[in-house]
Amino acid sequence: MSADLHTQRGKWSEANVPHKGWSCVGVDDLEEPSQVCEMCESVDIRYVHYMEHPDYPETLAVGCVCAEHMEEDYARPRAREKDLRRLAARRKNWRGRKWRISQAGNSYLNSEGFNLTVYQGTEGYRIAVSRRGTAKRQSGRKWYPSEEDAKMAALGALIWAKSHL
């Protein structure tokens, strides 16, 4: 669908909905096209850009093309979406990572200068992450019902640790 046709449908055709001056307040990967863009109301989207405007009461969940027009920026929405695509690919590859077993019997993985450990506790499994070669360490507060769930969540812990530890 061309951009011109795209921006003539749904809320684009409503006079009380601002067309410019929106800001993105978050993005999300739905893992498959499963939501209709709330601006054009005509495209199924996988990567959602949450847009807010000071003169509009609701946050709108929109696709990349509508976000581009709403922000009047044709680079930032594509960059956000590219980051989400990269993270989705990384999550897919993360499942195949080979975890080892520590002397204490915990699963661990060394990646990008960090040691990720998944250990069992009273309410399930938790994650600990430490920067290798330093005393910097953080244990997660969240409990996961299975070791596999904790291992998948460890990617998020690694991403967090890279900017905080």
Description:
Helix 2 runs antiparallel to helix 3 (76-94). The protein is 30% helix and 31% strand. The protein is elongated, with a radius of gyration of 21 Å. Strand 6 (100-101) and strand 7 (107-111) form a beta hairpin. By secondary structure, it is an alpha+beta fold.
Q: Tell how many strands the DSSP assignment holds.
A: 10
In this structure, how is the largest beta sheet organized? 5 strands, antiparallel
Bin the helical content.
25-40%
Shape, principal axes of CA atoms: elongated
CA-atom Rg in angstroms? 21 Å
Percent strand: 25-35%
- Overall structural class, as computed from helix and strand content, comes to alpha+beta
Series of secondary-structure elements, N-terminal to C-terminal: HEEEEEHHEEEEEH
The helix tally amounts to 4
Question: Which whole number gives the mean pLDDT?
Answer: 92
In terms of per-residue confidence, which ranges show pLDDT below 50 for 5 or more consecutive residues? none
What distance separates the N and C termini? 45 Å
Placed side by side, the strands forming the largest sheet appear as 6-7-8-9-10
Q: Would you kindly provide a brief summary of this structure?
A:
Helix content is 30%, strand content 31%. The protein is built from 4 helices and 10 strands. The strands form 3 sheets. A 5-stranded antiparallel β-sheet has the order 6-7-8-9-10, with helices on one face. A 3-stranded antiparallel β-sheet has the order 1-4-5.
